[in-house]
Structures are given as C-alpha cells and as structure tokens.
Design goal:
- Helices cover 33% and strands 26% of the residues.
- It is of the alpha+beta class.
C-alpha cells in the first residue's frame, strides 16, 4: 500500500463550521443576511392588489345605489299616480222602530155569531175576532182554486189565454151541480172556453162546475189538483186549512177567517184576479150573462172579493175595499164566516163593511227615520264624515207594529266624494210597504295626505 493511501483525511476548519447546527453557533456570531423587502418584494405585490380592488368596490356601490334610487323613484311614482282607496261606509242606524201603542186596545165591531178577521197587507196586520177553529168555507174555497190555476197558467190583462174544451165529464159535473142546487154555468159537449172566460165564471158567478172543469185541465184530475191546493196552502202558512175539492161544495173543505185572508191578499196582488172579482156580471158563450153573488161591489170602495154559502158553512164573505189613508190608497180586507138569517150573504157583507169602516181610522203613520238623521259614517285617511238621511221615511202603521230599518250602500263611491254625494239608502220595511231614502255625506270626504299616499 502506498503512503498516499495511508495518509489521514484532513478537513479544513472552515468547512466544518459551515455545516454546524445554527442553534449551536455562539451568541456573538454575526446574523445571517435576509432577503430584501423592497418595491419588488411581497409587500409591494399586496399593495398593488389592494389598489386594483378599490375601483371595483366603488363601481359596485354606485350600481347598487343607482338601483335603489330607481326602485324608490318607481315606487313613489306608482303610489302618487295610483287611485286612492274608496272610502269605507259603515251603517250607523237602529235596526227597528216600534210603533207607539195608545192607551186602550182598538175595538172592532165583530159579529156576534161565526168568526171574522181583518187584514191590512200594507202594514202586515192580521187580527181575528177570537180563537179560531176550522169550519166549512163553501165557495171561499175558490180563492185557492183561482190561485193555483193563475199560478200554473198566468194570464196577462186583456188576453184570453189558452182554450179549454168541455168534455163529457164536465157535462156530467154540470148536471150533478144542478141537481145539488149549487151555483153553476151551463155548458155543452165540445164547447170552447178561454181560460179568461172560465176564471171569470168561477169568480164572478161562483160556478161550481167550472171549478171542476179548470181543475181537470190544470192538473189532469181533481185529486191531483186538490193535492196542489193543499200544498200551496201549507206553503202560504194556512195552518188551519184543508181542501177536499176545488169548489167548496164538499164540507170537508175547511179553514178559518184568518187563513182565508192570507190567500185573499195573495190573490188581490194579481191584477187579473183583482179585475175579475170586481165585475158585477160576466157573459159566457152558452151560459149567457151571469151576475155576481158577492155583495156591495162598487159601494164604499168595495172591490169584491168572494162570497159563499152552503148549509154547513152558513153565509161567508171575503170583502176587499180601498180607503185613502193619510194620502195613500190602502187595501183593507175582512172575512166573515158562519152567518145565519134570511139573507146570509148580505149579512156577511154588512159585517165586513162595518169592520173595514172601523179599521180605517185606527191606522196611522210613523216616521221611521227623521230627515237629517245619522245613518252611516264614511271613513277615509283616518278621518270620518257623517252621512245622513236626506228626507224623512214615513210608513202607514198600526199600534204595536215594528218597522224594520236597513242600510243599503250604493256602488260607485269615489275617493273624491263631495258634500251631498249619495253613499246609500235607508230602507224602511213594514208589511208590503218599502220606503227608501237616499243617504248623503254632510261634508267633503277628506283625501289622504302626501305621506299617507306614499305609506
């Protein structure tokens, strides 16, 4: 082995120091130099990025601000140009007015026998002579017969209506009525009669055979027609009424005076019926001219309506008369039943006349609403304006009556309602009476302020 191979490895001291652990360096060793942090260092890069972000944020803020301003402008424009809400109208009115009752009950001249009742449809009045029991009503039955036929086959004033042909069954009926000494109108097989002629013969002359004839024509059979009569009686509140036939010859057709006035009031509301029952006579093709049995037509305002007699029923009369009360033509009704004597129809009619004569002075008037009375309140923009009745509402009345009041708003009220604008009507109802009075605002309806329009 050569000497070069055996020579020891020599390492320079500076080489060993260069690989020493820095933590073991002496405290007085000089610090190692750090890389520079000048304009081209990391701090310079971050500053440059911040400068680039500022314009973007500013632009975004400006865009948002512009959008908000535009939306606000649109909102304000819409609110300012939008129509104001319609003012709210609230009723401020009593629901009823009670008619004062004078001391002492009204006294009417009731007949000593039978039963009687009076009615004034205009005021909803119905008064009877006392507790009632159903009794035979004879030809008063025809009031319901006429009601059913004219309901099923309405007639127009001045028109004759459909044609009815007399059948063999109708001829047999006529013969039977004559044999029973009932009121009748002669017929022949194949005779042509208009509905108007048949109804006139039924109501004016009270022809019993005409009642059967028109019942078959209307319903196909007499039993079917009688069923209709009873159904209508129940619907009209005639709780003490039952019909057994269309004419009243059968004593099983029973009712009360009060119930008879319920159907009479309905009938008199039909102008065709009302025109027929005031006729003193009627002329028919075969039967000729036949007179009425109803007494006192045309006297003291009497308009009819219907009389009737059978031995079971006695003398009966339903009388309608018109009296001018407090400047108003008013229909008064009286029903008198079960009368006896030498002339039972005249006696029943006289009692009816006495009743309507005594009834008329007892009817008065009631002011349900005073002119200028508060009827409603109109509210807008947090403020309220009174609305008052423009005139009084007066109704014909009977002591103890109740007048029903209601407020009906009118459409078309605007936000620019001025003093005197109509906002609705007060409606006063009693019986068949219905009086309407306009309701007007007393001052201009206030409009919303600018802030209220915006918010």
């Amino acid at each position: 082995m050569s000497q070069e191979a055996e020579a020891p490895l020599m390492v320079a001291p500076f080489q060993l120091d260069s690989i020493r652990d820095p933590a073991r360096q002496p405290a007085d060793a000089p610090a190692q130099p750090q890389p520079p942090r000048g304009a081209r260092g990391e701090h310079a890069v971050h500053s440059h990025r911040r400068r680039r972000r500022r314009p973007r944020r500013l632009l975004l803020a400006l865009v948002v601000l512009a959008l908000v301003a535009t939306a606000a402008g649109v909102f304000v424009g819409v609110r300012l140009h939008a129509p104001d809400p319609v003012p709210a109208v609230t009723p401020d009115l009593a629901r009823t007015v009670q008619v004062q009752v004078a001391p002492g009950a009204p006294v009417l001249p009731w007949p000593q026998t039978g039963q009687a009742a009076v009615a004034v449809p205009a005021v909803g009045l119905a008064v009877s002579s006392g507790p009632e029991q159903p009794v035979p009503v004879a030809s008063l039955t025809k009031l319901m017969t006429a009601y059913v036929v004219l309901h099923d086959h309405p007639l127009i004033t001045g028109q004759a209506g459909p044609t009815l042909t007399v059948t063999q069954a109708d001829v047999v009926d006529y013969d039977q009525v004559v044999g029973a000494d009932g009121s009748n109108a002669a017929v022949t097989l194949g005779e042509q009669l208009s509905e108007e002629q048949v109804m006139s013969g039924l109501l004016v002359h009270s022809a019993d055979n005409y009642a059967d004839l028109v019942a078959r024509w209307d319903a196909g059979s007499i039993p079917a027609f009688v069923s209709e009569m009873n159904a209508d009686a129940a619907r009209l509140g005639m709780t003490q009424t039952h019909f057994a036939d269309p004419s009243g010859l059968d004593p099983g057709s029973t009712s009360t005076a009060s119930d008879m006035l319920k159907i009479a009031a309905r009938d008199m509301g039909n102008p065709v019926f009302a025109a027929m029952v005031k006729m003193p006579s009627v002329t028919l093709p075969v039967a000729g001219t036949l007179r009425t049995y109803t007494p006192f037509i045309g006297l003291q305002g009497v308009l009819g309506v219907k009389s009737g007699f059978t031995p079971a029923a006695g003398g009966c009369d339903v009388l309608a008369a018109v009296r001018t009360l407090h400047g108003r033509p008013t229909l008064l009704l009286a029903a008198v039943m079960g009368q006896t004597g030498p002339d039972v129809l005249a006696q029943a009619g006289l009692h009816g006349l006495a009743l309507v004569g005594a009834l008329a002075p007892l009817l008065g008037t009631t002011t349900a609403v005073q002119g200028g009375q508060l009827a409603a309140r109109v509210s807008e923009a947090g403020r309220t304006v009174a609305a008052t009745a423009s005139s009084p509402a007066t109704v014909l009345s009977w002591p103890g009556d109740t007048v029903v009041l209601s407020f009906r708003p009118r459409p078309g009220l605007t936000d620019r309602a001025r003093r005197g604008a109509v906002v609705g009507d007060v409606v006063a109802t009693l019986g068949t009476q219905r009086v309407e009075v306009p309701v007007r605002v007393r001052h201009d309806v206030p409009r919303p302020t600018l802030l209220q329009r915006l918010f």
